Amino acid sequence: MLPPLQIRALLLDLDGLMIDSEPIYRLAWQSAAAALGYEFPDALYLNLIGLNDHDSEGLLIRSFGSGFPLDQFRALWPTRWRRYVEENGIPVKPGLGDLFKVLDAHRLPAAVATSSDAEQAAFSLRAVGLDRRFACIVTGDQVANGKPAPDIFLEGANRLSVSPRQCMVIEDSDVGILAASAAGIPAVLIPDLKAPSAEAAALAYRIFGTLHEAAAFIKVLLANQNNLDDLSKSHRNDGFVKSSRCKARKN
Known about the structure:
This protein is of the alpha/beta class. The protein contains 10 helices and 6 strands. A 6-stranded parallel sheet has the order 3-2-1-4-5-6.
């Protein structure tokens, strides 16, 4: 039986979870590699999902060899990615609006915790009109170790002034689920391009197909939690401990 949760904040991945940007990144990376004379298979891209730029580049060198022109690749792919987004936009994932309604109804703070660097994340959030939506944004270049290390989620909880044990992560990648587990934070998994590994599936608190389903689950969870909070308040003189509600710290 799964343990009860007390959720005071959400930590949300960005690419592949809230916005359908992974196919755009894949196109830009494959196009840039092709321009340099390298074939970039889909299977290799799937292994990069959830990693920060530094770790992704390390995997590219291991896959293509030390002769891979990394500096040229770094110069090419962001230009192609930005051009595509400027011309076509980035779709948001179905159900994201449902999730925001739940957050607003319960005044639940949320932070973005993405492996993208700060410039990429800001560009993507502006492209979909979400740049003012979140209490804080933690990016892969702002922490010492990328996913699957716990750093990014621990930093997100810290910026929201909420204990990691009172947060919930929503992720689409294996490395994101591993990072949440390492941080001691329960995580909901909504797979995107890649089916979850057995390890990630076992570590996830719940697995859903869409944000619609995840939002419905969190809505019920928070409603039940609020009922328990109300009960605790009504019995605070009878030995019950009042639950604390942390406020998000503004950036």
